[in-house]
Write a structure and sequence with these properties.
Layout lengths: L7 E4 L11 H16 L10 E7 L6 H19 L9 E2 L2 E9 L1 H14 L16 H7 L3 H4 L19 H14 L10 E18 L2 E16 L5 E4 L26 E2 L1 H11 L9 E8 L6 H11 L13 E9 L9 H9 L2 H4 L5 E6 L33 H24 L8 H14 L19 H17 E3 L8 H6 L12
Parallel strand pairs: 2-4, 2-11, 4-5
Antiparallel strand pairs: 1-11, 3-12, 5-6, 5-10, 6-7, 7-8, 9-10
Length: about 500
């Protein structure tokens, strides 16, 4: 069954599949084992269906994203509350494990987490209707005349603003913070991991295995934890993500007299303003932060080092063990990672809370640049673009325009390089149901006479091996979404029981 998605990528863990010398038999063994595990009522029934969101940057397209995200989350919540689904059976509860975003998508990241967590209005939640919700509050409040004041000395400009004023954005952010601080607004006991990418204005130098490297792309993670009284608080304890020791990860410090690992409301707002600090538009931000103790001293942290040498101060912020306090200037996170699917994956799969759940995560990414219909561009035939270009076309020019073409292409590629590196890595190649369909296609294409009746004996009729693989992969996907999985022909309940794929069945309700 297809998952609801806008560009989905679903994967099964990070483990390689050890097929060995007999890949086909081993593949069937792992497929059977996972089917057995996923439908075992003593274990798998308690696991939720996990979803992770990645939201791209897009400047003013953030308003488009906002409406799409609101509708998506509303549909997911309605699906979660549906007891009788189209195929019958009983769906697993749905859990959003992580949300990652950048630039305008970073602002929508927090709004998405709040929209997922909000109580119904009749239970004390804030208004969350299609014509009145926090997405509309944030994206429709700023006025163009206030965003771009007519006078350079306008009182609308805040300290640190550039061409555009943040005054309305900061005001509406504070109004939203009042909503998450009001008792009863949110469903209690939820935890959502969030990550926002930022770009260091000056590259940071450090050593990796004795090699000096530089980095500008960094990210700030934090968790939104809804409390028993229906409010939200923000934390991030790196011990809860023990496999996430990343020099590119920077954390927010907390006051010496504050709650350990807490992230204040002001820090959350500052982080949102930082990830969306588009160069020349919104002014860059200077942040105090915590970084892994693997960096040599640099100019950005020299002032912090001098303060530490003078002795601890009462108001000095505190960092987690293994981290040190630093300070630097940051700008828009979309400059080097405009669609942080990799960050969403890291937060979902490195969390200790989620590692005990073997079900795969369903990744949904939102990219305003991806369109259903391509824009029709008139074809312009140039001699130099033909199959046999004239010799003159091979002559290279070296003027300012031609050289800037290289830089322009490099800047555009840099924004999506992290996406390219993520999607071409091994993390997205371990989808067992997809692999089974590919193997079925290979069997058909090569017209192989492969026998797998004994390995996949789940059917009420004779089927070829490729068909058995396709139906088995479909059943596997159903078990990942359903606690009580609907069984339809040609699958046989008796055969599934005999193979101990399932132990308990009940007739469909009428």
């Amino acid at each position: 069954m297809k998952k609801l998605s806008l560009g989905p990528m679903c994967k099964k863990g990070r483990r390689r599949t050890p097929w060995g010398r007999r890949p086909f038999r081993r593949f069937l063994f792992y497929l059977m084992a996972l089917l057995l595990f996923c439908t075992n009522p003593a274990t798998a029934d308690t696991y939720p269906n996990k979803i992770s969101l990645a939201i791209s940057g897009g400047a003013s397209m953030g308003a488009y994203e906002a409406g799409l995200i609101w509708g998506l989350i509303e549909v997911i919540r309605q699906v979660e509350g549906t007891g009788d689904w189209s195929l019958g059976g009983e769906l697993r509860p749905i859990e959003i494990t992580s949300i990652a975003g950048t630039s305008a998508g970073g602002i929508n990241t927090l709004l998405a987490a709040l929209t997922w967590s909000v109580n119904p209005e009749n239970a004390g939640g804030f208004t969350n209707r299609i014509d009145d919700n926090i997405f509309r509050d944030v994206w429709l409040t700023p006025d163009v005349n206030r965003l771009l004041p007519p006078d350079a000395d306008s009182p609308l400009y805040e300290p640190g603003d550039a061409l555009l004023s943040r005054k309305d954005l900061i005001a509406v952010a504070r109004e939203v913070s009042k909503k998450w601080s009001r008792p009863g607004s949110l469903r209690p006991e939820l935890r959502i991991s969030m990550g926002l990418t930022v770009t260091r204005v000056r590259p940071e130098s450090f050593s990796v295995s004795g090699v000096e490297v530089q980095n500008q792309r960094e990210y700030i993670p934090f968790e939104m934890r809804t409390q028993a009284n229906g409010t939200a608080k923000f934390f991030f304890n790196p011990d809860d993500y023990s496999s996430l020791a990343d020099p590119a990860m920077i954390l927010m410090p907390w006051p010496a007299d504050g709650t350990p690992f807490s992230v204040s409301t002001q820090q959350v707002i500052d982080t949102l303003m930082t990830t969306s600090a588009f160069p020349a538009g919104f002014g860059r931000k200077r942040l105090q932060y915590c970084r892994l103790k693997t960096h040599p001293a640099d100019k950005d942290s020299a002032a912090m080092t001098a303060m530490e040498a003078a002795g601890p101060q009462q108001s000095e912020p505190v960092c987690p063990a293994g981290y040190e306090l630093a300070e630097a200037e940051f700008a828009d996170g979309g400059l080097f990672d405009n669609l942080p699917i990799g960050l969403a994956r890291l937060l979902s799969e490195s969390s200790k809370r989620h590692k005990k759940n073997p079900l795969p995560v369903n990744y949904i990414y939102l990219d305003p640049n991806r369109q259903r219909y391509e824009n029709l561009v008139p074809e312009v035939k140039r001699a130099c673009e033909g199959e046999n270009p004239p010799e003159a076309c091979r002559e290279m020019t070296f003027d300012i325009a031609s050289e800037l073409t290289v830089l322009g292409g490099a800047l555009g590629t840099a924004r999506k390089y992290e996406l390219f590196r993520e999607l071409t890595g091994d993390n997205w190649r371990l989808n067992l149901s997809q692999l089974s369909r590919e193997m079925a296609g290979n069997i058909d294409a090569n017209k192989q006479n492969v026998k797998c009746d004994s390995a996949l004996p789940y059917f009420d009729r004779q089927l070829g091996c490729s068909d058995r693989l396709r139906y088995a992969s479909g059943l596997l996907e159903l078990t990942q979404s359903y606690r009580l999985t609907p069984i339809q022909a040609p699958l046989s309940v008796q055969a599934l029981k005999k193979a101990r794929i399932t132990t308990t069945c009940q007739p469909p309700s009428t």
